Amino acid sequence: MVGFEAWLGECHLRARDGSADYQRCAAVWADSAEAFRSRLAEHVAQIGYSVFCVGDILPAPEYHARHLSTARETSPLARAVHPAHLVELGKLGAMGGDGEPTGPTVNLCIETLESVEPLDMQIGVWPRLNVPEALQEPLFGQPEPTEAEIARYGNLEAVPSMKTYAILDAAKLPNLLTGLLEASQLQYQSLFQGEAQGELKEQAPYLVELKEDNSFTRQLFTGPEGVNGLWDKELGIYIRSRAPFADIRKHFRKFTRVQDENGKWFLFRFWDSKVSRFYLENIDAQRSHGKLRYIFSDTICKWVTCETGTNTIFGLGKTEGSIDKAFQLNQNDYSIFSDFSWKKYLDKLFRTLRSEHADLYSLCTKGEIIEIAEQARKQNFRTEIAAYNYVRSCLTAYQLKLNFQTMLAQTAGGSPTEHARRLWHVVCNHKNEGQHNA
Predict the structure, then answer these.
(1) In the chain, N or C: fewer CB atoms in 10 Å?
(2) Domain ranges, ordered by start, for the chain
(3) What is the CA radius of gyration of the chain?
């Protein structure tokens, strides 16, 4: 089955009799997201369930790179599937019904939209779209009020319409974004306050209430094949809420600077789509139920991140238990941010290898490169240059059929950066000698 491998995804399963919902990770032997969905649906139907929704479907190496904190739990799932065993479901996590565990619970729903293409010139298209069709409903649809919302506002007629907000990063478009916002005639305001609001005008996050028929909205969702498109800039995040502008600003100002358990302050760049997506994908929803309830409060209905190739929708479903009184960083958060930094480094590593060592990059899969980089990390080659020299030394040794572990031991000494530099120098000498002898 050429092209097939283990794929992983997050699934929300529903019992056929409607008695309970369950969340679990699934591994499927597949060659595409479509094959993943098809085989998963067929498998769960045989055991009395249906697939309510599924998201974050990726080949196992890419899934592990994105979810480093859960790789230990999901790796056995990926290894369990093969041509003779197509589907393996992870440990059952009850979300409702009779099988629901006691204690506080939070259902963090995550939906991934694939193959979303930004708007182009739209030649011959009338009326012109202001947002890609796949994002129209998530970002500008008007869902029916929930029972909780009706109760909160008193009656159905009193429930406000669903609004769309963006939190955009001026630092990604300095001296331009603020001018575009001013010209847009949309309501907007910096999330910074006081002196920082003026001094950091071109680096601040800006809350904007978007209107679907506004030209600035169209510009946000237009790609490089359109006119003045901003899609590739990945300027920020999108929020769906029934709350007014002032309430949304007040809510998100709480997160611009956050404290840890020792009282130390940090800047939390939640308005960066990659930061917020990685954080929400990797937070432990049950252990951090109070924190998630604080983040979403009763204010945020949906939190949407739009990036090139990845569009993710986050929302809270069934929730129980207390809500935290403040957002405070703890050790679990530090682990997530550490993994995020490592993920950023891996992306940079792929780009650098592809640019500087195309022959090495083509030797193996991304997953195999990630495994080598993880080996470097475990052996304390943690700086970017040390890890890079370790990885390219390992790949070159494999290419030349050299004993990498022997060379690694022979070059030991000094700091990890010095060790990795010596290792690369020795490997290069072997390569040059081989070319000379040839």
Answers:
(1) C
(2) 5-94, 106-325, 346-437
(3) 24
